TrEMBL record:
It is found in: Cell membrane. It is a multi-pass membrane protein. It comes from Streptomyces sp. R08. GO terms for molecular function: transmembrane transporter activity. Residues 35-410 form the Major facilitator superfamily (MFS) profile domain. The chain crosses the membrane at residues 35-57, 77-95, 102-126, 132-152, 164-184, 190-210, 231-253, 273-292, 299-318, 324-347, 359-379, 385-405. This is MFS transporter.
Amino acid sequence: MTPSPPSRPDTATAPAGGPVVASPCPSPSGGLRGWLAVVAVGMGVFAFTTTEMVPIGLLPAMSRDLGVSEGTVGLSVTLYGAIAGLFAPVLTVATRRLDRRLLLLVVLSVFVAGNAFTALSSSYAVLMVSRLLTGFAHGVMWSIAASIAIRLVPPGQAVRATAVVFSGISIASVVGVPFGTLIGQSDWRTAFWAISGIGVVILAAVAFLLPSLEPRAVVRLSELPKLLRHGNLRIATLVTAAMVIGHFAAYTYVAPFLEQDAGIPSGWVSGLLLLYGVAGVVGNFAGGAAAVRALRTTTLTCILLLATAVVLLVVNGSRHPGTIVLLLVWGIAYTALPVCLQTLVFASAPQAPEAATSLYICAFNISIALGALAGGWAVDASGPSSVMFLGAGFSVLAAVLMTRYRVGGSE
């Protein structure tokens, strides 16, 4: 895939001369079948996101069954994300010569097997092996999902296809993780059997719907650092890192903030976070629609909205209506950003979109861990409100970096 280089980052459609992130070659599929294939890829993202996060709601049950502490079981989430991020560039390059349809089928097959092994785990060691196996596949999935999707639709609909793929993240938060937690309450293994079964369905859909997609823009491992010489890609990666650190520094500790500083009753918190997830689905598609018309402006606006919302949550105090509105604004702003940032990455390195995406995914996942770590230090030192200011500070840094994104090309 070789997207046309952007001539004006504030647009994202070919007729307007903006950053075309799809292949200039004719779509190998297109029409209803092409969009169904995009949905199938998005469901793959949904499944991977669900399996990454569902242990959070099952920690007590998994801890009792496997005879280890909840914190130890929690490493199955932390290390999963670390593996996905750190090995995404290496594995994406290692599989660079494989047909993308075949690679996606292999990744989904590993996903199905990994979750089945998790469900069958007889010990903590087996659990971690199965989780890390799935984590390797996760990194590849994130690196290739959007680049596959935009090859299945006409160039002018590339950003919309990216939004459909990333909607899988929001839907996992709203539906996948709560549902997995619910069905896993009596037996946590049931949740992973169900996720593995969903993976089988997605695997079948991909096998039926996706055409053969030859690899393009082959990049060697030694060439990955050279990609960061492209100024816009370097800026997009730094913006991603700052934005994700800021968000997760604050969001990881949003529950104690809501209860202790905003005066929200503990029984309301889960419902508010569900509303946050619903707002995220809206933000994902709204952000994609806005990015088609004004990519750089939309990205900058979402960053500043997030920074404003988290600061005003502190200023708002214990006024519940204001807290609810600001939490929804936060959800809309943040979940619009993955679509915008992924599109920026494509536009910044059109000659090697998958390799560039693997660097983006690496930065994204490492920044999740860094954000949670920084937020933990802030909470321990100064209380829950401090993480909101920390999140806003990193968001402002991301906004400043975003202003340096160069108009007119990928260099």
